[in-house]
Amino acid sequence: MELIANLGLGLSTAITPLNLLYCLGGVFLGTLIGVLPGLGPTATIAMLLPITFVLPPVSALIMLAGIYYGSQYGGSTTSILVNLPGEAASVVTTLDGYQMARKGRAGVALATAAIGSFFAGTVATLLLALFAPPLAEVALKFGPADYFSLMVLGLVASIVLAQGSLLHAIGMVLLGLLLGLVGTDVMSGAQRFTFEIPELADGIGFVVVAMGMFGLAEIIRNLEEEGERSVVIAKITNLMPTKEDWKRIIGPILRGTLIGSAVGILPGSGSILGAFAAYSIEKKISKNSAEFGKGAIEGVAAPESANNAGAQTSFIPMLTLGIPSNPVMALMIGAMIIQGIQPGPSVIKEQPALFWGIIVSMWIGNLFLIILNLPLIGLWVRLIMVPYQLLYPAILVFCSIGVFSLNNREFDIYLMGLFGLLGYVFSKLGCEPAPMLLAFILGPLMEKYLRRAMLISRGDPMVFITRPISATLLLLAVLAMCAVLIPAFHKTRQEALRE
Amino acid sequence: MSIKSPKDFWTGLIYVAFGLSAILIARDYGLGTAFKMGPAYFPALLGGLLGLVGMISIARSFLKPGTPIGRFALKGLLLVVGSTLVFGVIVRGAGLVIAIPVLVMISAYASIHFRWLPSLALGIGLAIFCILVFLKGLGVPLPVLGPWFGG
């Protein structure tokens, strides 16, 4: 069995003391930022990126991955105990998790979240191991036109899944693509949109944009709501679910894992949408549906399994195609490029130790997480009490020094401030930043593949519909767009994406 | 005619501004043809589409009612963005030991729970931590104490 040999190689990579340490460090940090409301994985990974430059590539990626899926675990703790989502994907968990806590069942809710997450993480990691290699084989056959269409599909998906106005999401994507083009044009050497500022010749760094729009803008937004924040933490008593609880959570965990895994692969969604979908489906089919919103254990099990499964499977497009499905994956791609690895379908073949090492480390990380989360819950509870007025200045310090250290210049700090301003204005106008950041990363790639495809076809745009792969991808994009315009779906989308 | 949806109107205006400037600036870069695209081809295409989306949004703002834009938290915005800019300006001259507490104090002032002593302590603690991690550990070329203070 090739799979077993590969997993063996992965195990031998992941289990070295150094990599185990970085895996543990990653999931620890991930849990930490997941628990702390107002600090998400995008801003954290952006902050930590400069630190990973000094690490070997495998260790760096193992740690960054750990931060991402660890944050999905940590987010549930805050949702259940204080009714604040520690992380965006945990919004749904507040509905029933906090109600369970109010009924004195906080411990059981936490245990359910942890068990569901662990099961989902294990299954999704296995799916990743099974499906990534064949998908990469297919991807090797991709031509420039196919890549272009794939990115179109990714952007359309991120538009469809964005909150708020569809039109504005389209605008955000176009704006992101444009901003991505700032700098030297690789094909002609022309300086574009640089305003004769030498620092802009290499383009705008995506870490700068991510920190500005996700770090700074988020802080300003949180400060607005500061007065409304009141932290009353529910007491934790008994952790173990009863026999009756077990019976009730098995189904939701299985379904949540499946839904989360499937949705996680979609570009632009990450883990949030899976959690919403899993919750609404459970609510519809459960025989305890009247209890939903009042502390139904199914309402914790399903979304928590789904968001963790989604966090793992969102690595599939990144590792097989080199295309990010969300801002966190874009940062991971950035980390790979800095480490001298060209992301794409050949990574699995050329860097088997890296690929399989990351996969095995994910499972080990999930094991660490269940150990970190249940016995150490007291520590995390104390962390929730850290007042925000002490937390956000620290985030600003790390963002500023981190962004400076990318190129050792102050210019990037100023640019980060500018994107913070832009991000805040757009959030006031109800425009979500995630599609823009995704487009920002894809901008130069899309242009490259568009130009190549047109060169090969001698300027004939029909190439995008005559190639079967490209045609299929574009058709999917068109279908996704049309689906949103159907009134019934439109209504569901509004409901599902409402915070 | 009056604006019924300020969010649509202002977002549209921003999109039009970005779209038009992209087209205007890209004019000098050389458009090329669909076969051999010049450096201006893709930006001009995107700029045109963005301008179009912006104009639709503006048009819609006069027709369809929308939610009002919430109040801008100017104090938070100015202090948070301002503190990072000030940090950038003084960090080389003053050094981290000054610049970090300054950044912390300015930004912390934005909070309604601001108190001098805890923030100052945080600033000093963070300065020590960052000097150890970023300067000693990762070798970021920034001074502990800058030339302005004889460092």
Structure commentary:
The complex is a heterodimer of chains A (499) and B (151). Chain A is mainly alpha-helical. Chain A has a two-stranded antiparallel ribbon. Chain A has helices at 2-14, 17-35, 41-52, 57-82, 91-102, 106-140, 144-160, 166-180, 206-224, 243-265, 272-285, 298-313, 315-321, 327-338, 347-350, 352-373, 377-384, 388-407, 411-428, 434-456, 463-466, 468-485, 487-497; strands at 183-184, 191-192. With 151 residues, chain B is an all-alpha fold. Helix content of chain B is 66%, strand content 0%. In chain B, α3 (74-94) packs antiparallel against α4 (96-108). The model of chain B has no long low-confidence stretch (mean pLDDT 91).
Keywords:
heterodimer; A: 499 residues; mainly alpha; 23 helices; 2 strands; globular; B: 151 residues; 0% strand
Q: Helical stretch count of chain B?
A: 5
Number of beta-strand segments of chain A? 2
Radius of gyration of chain A: 22 Å
Estimate what percentage of residues of chain A fall within beta strands: under 5%
Order of strands across the main sheet of chain A: 1-2
Order of helices and strands of chain B: HHHHH
Topology:
The complex is a heterodimer of chains A (499) and B (151).
Chain A: H1 2-14, H2 17-35, H3 41-52, H4 57-82, H5 91-102, H6 106-140, H7 144-160, H8 166-180, E1 183-184, E2 191-192, H9 206-224, H10 243-265, H11 272-285, H12 298-313, H13 315-321, H14 327-338, H15 347-350, H16 352-373, H17 377-384, H18 388-407, H19 411-428, H20 434-456, H21 463-466, H22 468-485, H23 487-497
Antiparallel strand pairs in A: 1-2
Helix pairs in contact in A: 1-16, 2-4, 2-16, 3-4, 3-9, 3-14, 3-18, 4-5, 4-6, 4-12, 4-14, 4-16, 4-17, 5-6, 5-12, 6-10, 6-12, 6-13, 6-16, 7-8, 7-20, 7-22, 8-20, 9-18, 9-19, 10-11, 10-12, 11-12, 18-19
Chain B: H1 6-26, H2 41-63, H3 74-94, H4 96-108, H5 116-137
Helix pairs in contact in B: 1-2, 3-4, 4-5
